[in-house]
Each structure stands twice: as C-alpha cells, then as structure tokens.
C-alpha cells in the first residue's frame, strides 16, 4: 500500500516538473488536490437570470458552511469556487472553462438555465468533469453525456402537478391559454409538458402564444389570448419576462387562475408583478416543511440569514453540493483523495455520486445510471401578496 503511494507521489512530482513529459493536455490534471477540496459553482450572478441564480449562490454557501462545520470530507474542508455563469451561453462556457482549467475543481454545480447547459455541459463532459445541473429541468439534460447529472427534477415530472392543483381549486376550468418563451430551451420543454397535461385532462387548449425572454411588452400576445376567454393561463418563461406577463394579463382584466412555470419560481418576481403576483400557482420540487434532519438545519440557517423561508433553487443548490461532499467522503474512505490525481478523482466522483442515496433538503434522492434524479415528493405553492404589493410569500397547498 505504502509503496504504491510513494510511486504515485514521485510520478506526480515528475509531471509537475516536466509537464510535457507527461503527455499533452492530460498532464494538467496529473496533479493532486492539496488542502481544501475545490467544487465549482457556475450560476448566474449577473444579468436578469441572477434573479434565479442568486438563490443558488445562497444555497451553495449554506451547504459549504454546514458540511465544513461537520468536518468536510473526512477532515478536509471543501472550498466553493464561484464563477459567474451570467445569463447566456458564452458566459456559462467561460465560467465552466475557468473552473475546469484554472480553478481545477473536482466537479461543477451549474449552470442556471437549461439553455446554457446545452452549450456548457458538453465542455465539461469532454474534459471528464462531473456536472450537477442545479436547476436544469428541460428534457434531455442527463443525456448530454456521461459526466452530466442533475438534482433538479425534470419538467415532465414537476409541471403537471400545477395543472392538477389548478383544477382542484377551480373544477370549472375548461379553456386554457398557454404562453412560452421561444428562445429558451427550458421554456420550450416545459410548455410541452404543460400542453400534454392540459390535453390529458380533457381541457381545451385555446391558444399557444410565443414571446422572447428579453420581451417587456406582451400586449399583443395577451390580448390575443384574452379574446378567447381562457379560464386558466399557463406561462413558461423566466422571472423578469414572466413577472411582466403576469402583470400585463391582470392589467388587461384577466381574472382567472395563472400557473407560472419553474422560471417564475422565485420571490424575485414580487417587485415585478407586485400585488397582482397574488394567486399565481407554481409547482415545487422542494418544501421548507420537508421533515428530514438536513432540511431542518438548512431551513434554520436560511431563515436566520434571510428572514424568510428557503426557496427551491437554494435547496437544489445545497443538494448538489451535499451529494458531492458525501460522494467524496465515500471515495476518500477507499483511497485518500490527497493522493489521487485530479483526473482520476473527477472520474471516480462522477461514478460514486450516482451510486448513493442522499437525505437532502429535497428529501431522499438518488440517481439513475444516466444521471437523472430520482425524487419522491413534489408540491404546489400559491403566491400570497400583501394588499400594497410590497410583501409576498409562497403558500404551500395541501
Ligand atoms: C431551466 C429552468 C430554469 C427556469 C431554472 C432557473 O428550470 O432552465 O431548466
């Protein structure tokens, strides 16, 4: 045992001194992690998408403190390395490349949008660096490659719950108008799931209206839809556009139920639609009431810091970091991480993470061999705003 370790160490030294002797690009990863174990977080810290991404930063940071306080990876702390993935594909690609090549992380949690994941994930996959999509819910994410998994349940599993809940609230619903952002992969995927659910319930899909995530004026689409007298509107877009669309539908006199998709799943839409955010229903892959020990600690830490209940995107980012930590512990128990080449560690981490069961704030989760999350519990919440539109909260429906 000892002998093979010292052979490995001397090979490592040789590679560092004579980089080229170790053969091209792969030599870069013939290094070992010394000190705190770097995990990359590549989510949106700027652009409109930061309305969603800032909740992910919060969740990841709480996870870092929680697990390091508990001893990290068998005594070695983790160190989150943040690179801003912005709101578009290029920013996500740059963040991934920096994390992979410069920061030499063992794995990545990111990016925020599926639209970004379809461009950035193949880069990590080729570099053999594991990725957890923390909020990538479009169809096809784990199928991007062997190194791509997600902790965010797909739209096909989550979205239909909101349609069921809307029908429970108002069994008279017959006509449904659907809106979606046609320049966003997640929105296109989610609207498919919503439209299927609507048809599956025998409801009439009276119109499908398209917009762009960069739009601020929805008058023509909203008017077109409202002329058809829908009694349910379903929106698949992101926070800023989605919030504006909700507001304009109400300003045009729409009184029926509105379902917002996952892109509206943040209190950061409250300043956009203010009082008329009230009543919007959104399916959830997380509930603050989840009774497990880890969620209780996560919830407490979040409430202490932010004075409000933790949102789904924070819980999912926490779960991504958690699974890495627990998988790293399992690896380290078999052979010391501090003596394992980074390239080998990344591959082992990719395999190990898919094997375990994890008690996370999302409840117990595990993964299919392809990297799809297996999660048991889903919820639906409805936004409740104060009369003046200054404060709001997500009320979970029974
Ligand atoms: C995706 C999403 C986003 C709305 C999460 C922030 O679900 O892009 O897949």
Report what the structure shows.
The protein has 398 residues and is an alpha/beta fold. The chain folds into 2 domains: 35-153 and 291-367, Rossmann fold (3-Layer(aba) Sandwich); 157-284 and 379-396, Rossmann fold. Helices cover 42% and strands 17% of the residues. The chain has helices at residues 2-17, 50-69, 89-102, 114-126, 155-158, 160-169, 185-200, 219-226, 239-251, 270-273, 293-306, 312-334, 342-353, and strands spanning 37-41, 78-82, 108-109, 131-133, 148-150, 175-181, 204-211, 232-236, 257-260, 281-284, 358-360, 363-367, 373-375, 379-385, 392-396. Strands 2-1-3-4-5 form a 5-stranded parallel sheet, sandwiched between helices. Strand 8 (232-236), helix 9 (239-251) and strand 9 form a beta-alpha-beta unit. The radius of gyration is 22 Å and the shape is elongated. Bound molecules: (3S)-3-methyl-2-oxopentanoic acid. (3S)-3-methyl-2-oxopentanoic acid (1QQ) binds at residues 52, 112-114, 135-138, 186, 262-263. The site of (3S)-3-methyl-2-oxopentanoic acid has 11 residues, from loops.
């Amino acid at each position: 045992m000892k002998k093979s370790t010292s052979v490995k160490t001397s090979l490592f030294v040789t590679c560092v001194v004579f980089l080229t002797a170790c053969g091209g690009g792969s030599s870069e990863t013939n290094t070992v992690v010394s000190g705190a174990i770097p995990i990359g977080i590549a989510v949106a810290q700027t652009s409109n998408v930061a309305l969603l991404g800032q909740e992910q930063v919060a969740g990841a940071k709480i996870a870092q403190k929680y697990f390091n306080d508990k001893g990290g990876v068998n005594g070695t702390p983790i160190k989150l390395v943040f690179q801003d993935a912005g709101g578009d594909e290029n920013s996500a690609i740059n963040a991934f490349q920096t994390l992979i090549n410069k920061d030499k992380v063992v794995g990545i949690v990111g990016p925020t949008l599926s639209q970004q994941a379809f461009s950035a994930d193949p880069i990590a996959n080729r570099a053999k660096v594991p990725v957890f999509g923390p909020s990538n819910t479009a169809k096809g994410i784990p199928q991007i490659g062997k190194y791509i998994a997600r902790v965010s349940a797909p739209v096909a599993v989550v979205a239909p719950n909101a349609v069921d809940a809307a029908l429970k609230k108002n069994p008279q619903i017959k006509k449904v108008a659907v809106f979606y952002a046609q320049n966003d992969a997640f929105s296109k995927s989610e609207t498919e799931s919503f439209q299927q659910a609507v048809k599956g319930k025998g409801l009439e899909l009276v119109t499908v209206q398209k917009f762009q995530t960069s739009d601020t004026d929805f008058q023509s689409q909203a008017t077109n839809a409202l002329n058809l007298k829908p009694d349910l509107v379903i929106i698949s877009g992101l926070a800023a556009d989605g919030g504006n669309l909700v507001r304009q539908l109400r300003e045009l006199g729409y009184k029926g139920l509105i379902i917002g998709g996952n892109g509206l799943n943040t209190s950061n839409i409250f300043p956009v639609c203010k009082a008329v955010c009230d009543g919007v229903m959104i399916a959830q892959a997380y509930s603050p009431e989840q009774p497990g020990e880890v969620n209780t600690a996560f919830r407490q830490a979040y409430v202490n810091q932010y004075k409000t209940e933790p949102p789904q995107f924070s819980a999912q980012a926490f779960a991504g970091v958690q699974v890495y930590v627990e998988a790293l512990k399992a690896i380290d128990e078999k052979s010391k991480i501090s003596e394992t080449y980074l390239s080998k560690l990344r591959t082992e981490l990719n395999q190990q993470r898919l094997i375990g069961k994890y008690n996370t704030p999302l409840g117990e989760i595990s993964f299919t061999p392809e990297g799809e999350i297996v999660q048991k519990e889903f919820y639906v919440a409805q936004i409740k705003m104060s009369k003046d539109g200054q404060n709001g909260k997500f009320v979970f429906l029974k």
